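INFO batch 0412 | record 1 of 1 | parsing
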Amino acid sequence: MKNSIITGAYDLHVHSAPDLLPRKFDDIELAQRIVDSGMAGFAIKSHYFCTVDRAKLVNEHVPGCHALGMLWLNNSVGGINPYAVEMAGRAGNKIVGFPTVDTENGIVKTFKLPPEKRPFWARVIVDMKNDGIELKPVKISENGRLLPEVYDVLDAIAKYNMILATGHLTPEECILLTKAAHERHVERIICTHVSAAGAGYAVEYQQEMLPYGAYMEHTTQSWSSGKVSLEKMVSQIRTVGIDRCIFSTDLGQPKNQYPDEGLLDFCTALVEQAGFSETEVRKAIVDNPKALIGE
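INFO prediction complete | emitting tokens
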């Protein structure tokens, strides 16, 4: 495994335990798998809580694995909360993501879909509504303009040189945000799982965000779950250019693969079925993530 295509890779989108939702593995178990597979590190994603402290603990106890903290701006951290971003930056957090589970579209869509079609995380929203808790969407804009607190968040991200991730925003909001981030000197931007079935962006929108320095993130779980074809993902990657793409897994759900397995399978498929070279693929899992995290 140490000489495989994923040697030295970073996975910047992993759902590990402890979490509100059941997970296949915890931080330490995954960190050991990262070392054993020859990968370099991973970012710990929780929709609900900042993970920078967990990342520090992993780095202390599992030498050879570089874990990264994330903060996602959902209701549990106060939504678009500059104070939460400031504290995360002071603690050494690496990635700040905009709303995911608490976007207006995410909440509305949850209750429009039949239970078997809902995303894995939707059970938390459903449970909260059943408990009589009001579900207030986290908004970043009104009438086509970003809210003032968004600019405060962007300034804090730039201040601590953190990475901005776009979350589950609409395409129009994503473009507004990436443009404003660029203007506010945010130098590291990830457009989150752009080819995902439920929260992705057409390639035309992706191209609009390239001038602002954004990288397009493609998640292996979109393909391995059968929700998105390899052909669609390959088409988008080739149109945008692999120099501006990263591959992450978005894995951690109990029924799915481990991230090292998912990343290896996806990268192998790109080489064996889609005609990419190993050098090209490693650009998106080693070189581009390292550029984003500043290594």
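INFO post-check: The chain is about 45% helix and 15% strand.
INFO record closed
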